[in-house]
Fold these 3 entries.
Entry 1:
Amino acid sequence: MERNKLSWLTLFIGPSALWLLLLFVLPMGAMALFTFRAGSFGAEREVFTLEHYRDFLSQHSYHLLLWRSTWMSLWVAVLSIVLSYPVAHYLVFRAGDRRILYLLILMVPGWISFLLRIFAWKVILGSGGALNSLLLWSGLIHEATPILLYSPLAVVVVLVYVWIPFAALPIFASLQRIDNSLLEAAADLGSPQWETFLRVVLPLSMPGVGAAFFLVFIPTLGEYVTPLLVGGVNGIMYGNVIQSQFSRALNWPLGSLLSLVMLVVVLPIMLLFNRLIKLEEIVEI
């Protein structure tokens, strides 16, 4: 019996584990080895050195940019959760039979090209965009100027817009798993709605909140397209430096090192959240 169970487990998990090994574990190992190479191309690529590690440790601009990018990603994750939680709460407890329809409408913008949506925000925030037109019409400004564009705030605003639907999905799933009898029991005991939310709904939905946080924070930290289009020089992020090392400077060893450093930054944050919100509970959503 146990042997049959193990065989079925191997059958179902084996292909995924092999796929993960080939496309994640092995490339990560190769990238780690690449950080010790003296150069990406030419005869010197076979020379192993610690030069790139010394460069990274001596360049404080990398450290500051990584710190700023981490804070920006944290803000994007927190704001996405704060704005998407009421949406998910409404869909579960107020939308009734139309919740699936509303959830579908919420996901429709994700079907549109990512670049097209970023360019749309670039137009909105530009000197001739909708925001400037509204401010000119209201008399708050008297000359068309780019509002928020090419700034860290523009990057945060656009990324929050992009990730709100995706943050709402795990929160929606965790709220939907709450037993209605718990809410009925709280109401029978005379608990007001706000106290029921704080003492029952919110704690039980924290696995979904944790999943939403990781779903937004991890890809945002490595984001480079959005900062490139709406952030400009002032809104550059750590991912832009990595992309530049691979595509423009052709310094693949340093780019690999910068990527591994970003991974090292993410791991302690995951461990911290694991102490606050058990990752096993997130997997069960």
Entry 2:
Amino acid sequence: MHVVTASDFEQWRNAARQCMLSNLAPEDVLWRDGREACPGLFDAFEKEPAPPRANQSHSPTVPRRFMELATYVACHRTPGRWPLLYRLLWRLTHETPHLLDIAADDDVLLAARWEKAVRRDAHKMKAFVRFRRIMEADVEHYIAWHRPDHYVVRLTAPFFADRFSSMNWSILTPDDSVSWNGHALMFGAGAPRSAAPADDQLESLWRTYYGSIFNPVRIKLKAMRREMPRRFWPLLPETTILDDLLQAAPARVQKMQSYAEGWEQSAIDFLPPQRDLNSLRAASSGCRGCPLYAPATQTVFGVGPPNAAIMIVGEQPGDEEDRIGAPFVGPAGQLLNQALVEAGLKREEVYLTNAVKHFKFEARGKRRLHKKPNRREVVSCRAWLESELAAVRPQVLVCLGVTAAQTLAGPMFRLSDQLGKIFATDFCEHTLATYHPAAILRSSPEGAGAKQQQLIADLRRAGAFVRKIN
């Protein structure tokens, strides 16, 4: 058995070339990771690869694609990267020249997975390194500390040299360090976090700038957490204000949309300091957050137990709801009551509310005909719904119709794609969308029956899910 040590790609490349010239099969070579330089009991008896045989005087030719793949896989933290790369090299040159085209091959699949992980880690390093300024003999020097998952310092160093060519800088990581003096890159050993400054006078300016350009309309929390994992947050100055920015984001969005519509206020301006349901209900009666309050009789707030396991959200109150001041008391509410009974649920155990709290209508003589609220009216009123969700914290959230679903799942939501399916939203992990009873009443006799059965089945599914959780 020939034992070979490699710490980086170039060392592996040179050692692999020698092994190939010696015609050593993968099972004849034991690769040792030089980064884990811990002498073994039998290291003194390691064999060097034998001299090249007479019929093998030159290096084998491999596809450029393999060299690119190997460059990234060599930076993966697992010690198994060296034997995997040599095994691929051997198979490419001795068995299957088109091996890399076989995506289902175990070795190819593993190498592709490691390459992807390294590329992602290199991208994270480019995105999340933050320099802090220090003065050395009246010369500015910028130092950053970063903790990558893999050995990506040498991969990313050219990017920083090009991006910050006029600065003198150093990037420290637990495994490696790199410095730039304006002319050349210099690599060294790793360093602890304490070796880098914790703060500098520029960071307060950066936080002010970041807060001013932060766009609350574009917030996607899951994507944000996926792209900026919390383990990087202590290294970034802007994360010290991020929680405050996220908390204020809904109010900023409503303000922006209200101003765009020419409104001076939104529902956020009328939220009470105390956010329990009784305080919210009392405060909502004076809401003037959008023009819908003017022609409506009154605000129609949600009803139900404050600890309800199921919350049902509709679009807006109708004519009878507006006159009485309670949700789902008209024809659509009666149909919903019937569906709840058939689904085995009790109305008094469910929290009922609407995305919009005022009745929007078009007057036709003495009649008031329902008119769908527009996007800005829905967004302006959303603060009340979000506050209800925060107070009740339902286990299952049922959206009746497209307006309610888009209010909570986003404007791209399509009821036809998600009908009856349980999916996650920022407001409830178990959300379900189904038909609104009013839509069933407007349907043809044939279509109404099928939609009503769908509504019953979805309510029954919500009840069964709650029972399963508990």
Entry 3:
Amino acid sequence: MKKTISVFMLAGILASSGIAQTKSKSESKQSTKKTTKMNNKEIVGTFLGSVAKQDVETMRKFATADYIQHNPFVPTGLEPFIELLPVLKENGTHAENVRLFQDGNYVFMHNIWKNAKPFGADEMVAFDIIRVDKNGKVAEHWDAMTVLVKETVSGRSQTDGPTIVEDLDKTEANKALAVSLIEDVLMGKNPNKLTEYISTEEYHQHNPQIKDGLSGLGEAIQYLTSQNNMFKYTKIHKVLGEGNFVLTVSEGEWNGGKKHAFYDLFRMKGGKIVEHWDVIQEVPNEKLANQNGMFGGF
């Protein structure tokens, strides 16, 4: 049952492609149907659209046969995935894309899943990463997901806020800023540098358990530490960015030392972090459908 549910989760995400394509129209015109002449956002959008429509022919055209899957409960390979598509139709789950970004051959997305009762909640939030290979084919997928919380302590939802990319010339500097925050603060190398990375004037928080501002973050850290349950980041596996948005994928421990995947999306302005969204998922170690690992391939 767990395996079927997780396949359903991935299928739900993939159904978001129609919105994703709409959001990327301003960046490139879809003037050709040839995969090699489409940008990576368009390639991913076309593939995901074919999944939503159960269009197997297009799926095979736009993805590699050895499509690598890192969702731990979904079989790896394109054909095994195609065989599981009826789950999407049978359950009616779909996803809405909120944000869509590109960094080289990686496309990364922020999604909301709707009607998701088959896997434990009516709505869920996810980050997805898809790699496009040098031949313009969808080749690899990673994700992390969590339950959508209706009432948050900040009053912000887990997905609202700006979506427009700005400051493309600052992409690399912003990626370096995100890495410094994680290494110094979340890994404990130089925790006193917090205000060097996060704005003291504006910090919008979308983690449902943390209030806005540096004071809200400090309050949350103090509480978790008092409960001997402070999360610990141990390794950064991937850093992806486009302009003022940066997504980091980290490994760490939480809730009794259990291994977790930490996906953090940051928005930067004026050289400081001014907004944060995240998805935290425990890394399973049993009933796995593949052996690729949630961080494999990064």
